[in-house]
Amino acid sequence: MSEFENLMDKLLEQKSELTKEDIEEQIKQKKEKIGAGYLTDQGALFLIASDYGITLSEPLKIEMELKDLYAGAKEISLETRVLNLSPAKQFSRKDGTPFYLRTMTVYDANTTASVKLWDEKANLPGIENLKPGDLIKIIKAYVKSDLDGSPTINIGSGSNIEPVNTESEIPTIDTITKDISELEEGQKDLVISGIIDGIISGMEFTNSRGKPGKALRMRLKGKDGSAMRVVLWGKDESSIPNMISQSAKVRLLGVKVRSGNQGLEIHGNDATIVEIEGGKQTEPVIVRVLSMLTTDNGKKMILAVDNKKNLYNISDLTNSTSICVEGDVIECMPSKIYGNSITLDENSFVRKLDNDESIPSLSQLRTKINDVKVDGNYCIESIILKVPERREVQTKSGESIALSEMFVEDDTGSIWVKGWRNQARIIDKCELGEIVSITGLNAKAGLEGRIELFLTVFSKIIKKN
């Protein structure tokens, strides 16, 4: 039923002696009297109601879909599903008075939209219980243009959100989930799935406004084996389990795809919902230490391997591994295990074990260059065929980054080994003709489809001659 028909019914309810035909005739007379081009049927209806002493002032809900949103729309109502929900944040107005704001992303069968909940609406009863995929009714909202020009739904003092417990044609979260391999640049408000590929780490920084910030970084692999870097701004390790196995399944709700320095990247924010297979309690790990090095800030970075030839990157924050040397077998109870990344801190313990022949040594673990495959992690032994070279690479943001590279070979083939930033300094110390053992290398696709090996923070180069 249209808004005009609703108004007509309200007038007929209060003036039962009138018929619909009577009112339509009066509308015609009103428009003829005032003149063409100045009055709509609905406007004439308001004037007629006023003549009878009736006020049609109750605002009506206008039902629409997300694709029909436009800046300036008022009193809208729509049915949609929740994609994600941010925490409520407190801000200050220009006059210093505080206000609360919570953002939410919603979707229907056609598109997505951002929702802003203001002041007391940011803490509506039950709002914290909303889950991704929940069906809701947004009532009497208004639409404004966001900073990027897109229409944004605003929930103010006269608006409301109600859960809906009926069937809907709006697809479920599972239906709209995309695999990493399906992503394209520019997509936003996505639900994506993948598998943990390598390290998960937290990052702290100072933003452009001089305020501290945080982010969670990881890599996810798709069904086709392709991997993509993920940065979740405003998130930290408190949002993920302490125990995450290698190749754990991950789903991220509310992310976008953009171009980074090394291809497409997935970016999220504090409203992004992170679902990772895992548990709160960690389990002891028995590994052999392959290499150990100490960073400039005194943190020990250790590459280790278990009896299934799984490589682990161990960050020792409290020097717990001072009892062991390269080649030792240790048992450790970490505070966190994220895929192949292990963190040792004051809540962890480490003990040295007797040698276990079932755990391979570094010499048994080395890979021939001809067997290196993209996205794998490797240890190699080779001879340097070209004098290491350093150059400065300019990023899209204007930052200048050091890159060093050298060409190496074993009896199966040759390959480029490269190092960025601090890892560039490690390569700089190498010389033509040296035989070197290199641990902790990551293989990536380079120019013209050739595979290249890159040093990581866990890499170590040991000269053999």
Q: What would you note in describing this structure?
A:
It comes from Marine Group I thaumarchaeote. By secondary structure, the chain is mostly beta strands. The protein has five domains: 3-51, no CATH class; 62-163, Nucleic acid-binding proteins (OB fold (Dihydrolipoamide Acetyltransferase, E2P)); 174-276, Nucleic acid-binding proteins (OB fold (Dihydrolipoamide Acetyltransferase, E2P)); 285-353, OB fold (Dihydrolipoamide Acetyltransferase, E2P), CATH 2.40.50; 366-463, Nucleic acid-binding proteins (OB fold (Dihydrolipoamide Acetyltransferase, E2P)), CATH 2.40.50.140. Helices cover 11% and strands 44% of the residues. The chain has six helices and 30 strands. α1 packs parallel to α3 (41-51) and α2 (20-34) packs across α3 (41-51). It is elongated and about 105 Å long. The chain starts with a helix and ends with a strand.
